[in-house]
Write a structure and sequence with these properties.
Layout: H1 4-11, H2 13-37, H3 43-49, H4 56-68, E1 72-73, E2 82-83, H5 85-93, H6 103-114, H7 118-134, E3 137-141, E4 150-158, E5 165-172, E6 177-183, H8 190-204, H9 209-220, H10 226-248, E7 252-255, H11 258-262, H12 270-279, H13 281-289, E8 297-300, E9 312-319, E10 327-334, H14 339-357
Antiparallel strand pairs: 1-2, 3-7, 3-10, 4-5, 5-6, 8-9, 9-10
Amino acid sequence: MATVWQAQRETGGTMADKAADRRLGVLRAIVSDYVETQEPVGSKSLVERHSLGVSAATIRNDMAQLEEEGLIRQPHTSAGRIPTDKGYRYFVDQIEAIKPLSAPERKAITEFFTSAVGLEDVMERTVRLLAQMTHQTAVVEFPAFNPSGLRHLELVRLGAGPDCKVLAIIISETGRVDQILVNLPHEVSEADLSSIGTPLTSVFAQSDIPAQQAALQEWLATVGNQALRENATILAQNIAAALEQGAVETRIVMAGMANLSRSGAFNETLTALVEALEEQVVLLKLFGEMREAEPVSVIIGEESGHEVLKDTAIVSSSYAPAGAGQAHVGVIGPTRMDYPSSMSSVRAVARYLSRILNQ
């Protein structure tokens, strides 16, 4: 974003540099105070709250320049100023380094993930943690895994007789856990399930689908008992479907939706925003278009290209577990969010998420 004071810094020498740096300091102070107080910021409060080293008159002149640049605006007569989307963008672009989390914060994240079991649990923990850290609505996109093999299979008989049901607990190599209730056409004993479970685990341990199918047919041909063979075939079909679903699934998990209403920034648009987020189509489309070159991506207001998100800011980072494509984790909140803190938290959680899923 080229601004008048950027041009001055390039052509005007030391005095211009100082003036440009001072105005950037004023903009940062306005953003900081507005995020904290949610009230328009005046020159008097800037003098009282910040050590800017200049008079109130100089700050008023700087604020006039910022307003001319379109970086701040006056929401109503006799009020202070608030940042515009353009102002937030300039502020974010001037954040030179993302502050790392403290040692206690890093320890808390590690402990939060330690007892996670399976992909679903990891995703749920991720959004709960990020919502707590940022006080925003947290979102995480499930990774689209390549076809994966079976890590563990457990078959549990439920009931007996001709309407026998079996609970199949399936854990894939990616960590996804599925529990599927399967109706079998023939009664099955615990011994039968044991004789089926071991070879099926071996068959589906292979990630290559044609190899799975070939191994399955080869094993089924050795099963002389027709009832057992039919039961095994149905169980194999359900296991294959679960592994395939884990590879193609694209969805988003969210937490902290109540933070949208608590912010007070969406009084007139809250219903439409919540509905859009719950439907997930807008977010999935937005994430699908994102290709971050930076560790953290920030989309402010109308930059999203979606009317329903015009009053929001989205801070996100990508993560890429082994065997999967790029996916995203981030937070959604009002444009007046605490960008430095949100960016730091999102980047850290994305890194921990990649680490956990690659273990």
